[in-house]
Amino acid sequence: MKTIIEPFKIKTVEPIYFTTESERETKLKDAGNNLFGLKGKDVIIDLLTDSGTSAMSAQQWAGILNGDESYAGSESFYRFEAIIKKIMGFKHVIPTHQGRAAEKILFSIVGGPDTIIPNNTHFDTTRANIEFSGAKAVDLLNKDGKNPSLIADFKGNMDTELLEAFLKENHEKVPLVMLTITNNSGGGQPVSMQNIKEVRAICKKYNKPMFLDACRFAENAYFIKIREKGFENKSILEICQEMFSYADGMTMSAKKDALVNIGGFLALNDDTLAMESRNVLVVTEGFPTYGGLAGRDLEAIAIGLEEILDEAYLQYRIRTISYLGEKLTEAGVPILLPTGGHAVYIDAASFCKHIPAEEFPGQAIACALYLKGGIRSCEIGSVMFGKKDENGKHIAPDLELVRLAFPRRVYTQSHIDYVAEVILEVFEEKEKLKGYKITQEPPFLRHFTASFEEIA
Ligand SMILES: *Cc1c(COP(=O)(O)O)cnc(C)c1O
Asked: How many CB atoms lie within 10 A of CB 213?
């Protein structure tokens, strides 16, 4: 059949609360025009993030009851460790309360002043943890990935020529190379097996470990299966096993492709680094068999990691994203093409040509989508990644995007039809949108807590 249906039935429901446009105006103002400041119940469709927002399965909820809460040596930990070893194959598995805790542990050991960590594109928490350690974070995204309207299969790839040149010059300062699959900040675009292999070969040449930021490993594997020659008949598990076989370690937010609401881990092969990591873990997270998690969380992750490998789920997942993408593209809304694994990204610079980067075109669109239809999205552009030079002049990132991230197994097709309708209405009146200025901001990850004012 041509219709791809949700491969699940709904067993438990949660109400959506409806607000009027004028109520939303007040709520947004009270939140300092920052969508992170809104209460969840004041949002109709929440596409702020796909992180920790998944609907768990009946099996996972059963696992929650079955969780073993032993402080040391929990059965749930051994199930968690076993599935990670089966899919990812690393020798050491270190649970953490979420992905950034794994990053914090890793970079507090290998980072620090005078070190540089390259990546295809660093995610915001990865970059923040690297910079917090005193190290520098460098993005080496391939050229295609910087062109939002170009259709290509693997726009998340690392530019291997740049990586080679970079390591030639800086190898003494580089403790490891990261590769983010799929490339979240680069638009949820996949990385090909070929690229993973090439990055691996370059790392080998310079004797550098390669770590995967593997939050969306299953979505990446699905794209490899449908787009890369030679993988069409392989199972998702086999593709995952091959991807991880080229890496020396990984960081993971279980809030993404482990289908849970909290959790993460660090996994790696090196014994010394694992010992040092566990030393930090016991101080900041907890004992090595629970990290920052309850036994029940480990249990739910173990089950989620099995469920995410289901091809029917991944097909529905990727199709939901492309379905919204097609509706927007047909109506002329500029989006990052092709659509990626977990989100549709509006190309805010093309959508609002009249708003310059330093006036945050993405923020203008994100606020408008909330006011019009109660949709919460996330700016990924000058608010999140903008910098200032010595003279206080704004340095814009490569892309100005608004991300509509899809929680896993939460919304149905009619929710997505509604989202499309709201975006099209805002698009029709795009000339009326105004830029924003920041009135207050913290030193790190400013997008979470900054306040904004509309520029009159
Ligand atoms: C979400 C995410 C992280 C951080 O994980 P948290 O669980 O939110 O701390 C790191 N890298 C990527 C690519 C992510 O998407």
From this structure: 27
The DSSP string of 37-63 is GS-GGG-SEE-S-SSS-PPPPHHHHHH
Q: Do 20 and 374 meet the contact criterion of CB atoms below 8 Å apart? A: no
Q: How far apart are CA 95 and CA 254, in angstroms?
A: 10
- Helix, coil or strand: residue 159: coil
Residue in the structure block whose two tokens are 């974070």: 137
Ligand 1 neighbourhood includes 104 CB (under 6 angstroms) = no
Q: Tens digit of pLDDT for each residue in 18-73?
A: 999 999 999 999 999 999 999 999 999 999 999 999 999 999 999 999 999 999 99
- Identify how many contiguous H helices and E strands the chain contains and give both numbers: 16, 16
Ligand 1: does its nearest atom lie under 6 Å from the Cβ of 76?
no
Q: Is the Cβ–Cβ distance between 171 and 206 less than 8 Å? A: yes
* CA 250 – CA 229 distance, rounded (Å): 25
pLDDT at position 184, please? 84
Distance of CA 380 to the CA centre of its chain: 11
Tell me the pTM.
0.94
The protein residue whose alpha carbon is closest to atom 8 in ligand 1 is 99
Is ligand 1 within 6 A of the CB of residue 213? Answer: yes
**Domain map of the chain by residue range?**
21-50+310-454, 58-307
What is the phi/psi pair of residue 283, to 5°? -80, -40
21-50+310-454: CATH topology is Aspartate Aminotransferase, domain 1 (3.90.1150)
Tell me how far the alpha carbon of residue 76 lies from the centroid of ligand 1, in angstroms. 23
Bin 209: left if φ > 0, else alpha if -120 < ψ < 50, else beta.
beta
Asked if CATH classification 3.40.718.10 holds for the domain at 58-307, the reply, yes or no, is no
Q: For 292-379, where are the alpha helices, taking DSSP H only?
A: 295-307, 311-330, 348-351, 361-373
Atom of ligand 1 nearest to the CA of 185: 13
Buried b / exposed e over 112-145, threshold 16 CB at 10 Å, is eeebbbbbbbbbbbbbbbbbbbebbbbbbbbebb
Separation CA 210–CA 177 (nearest Å): 5
Cβ–Cβ contacts within 10 Å for residue 276, how many?
Answer: 16
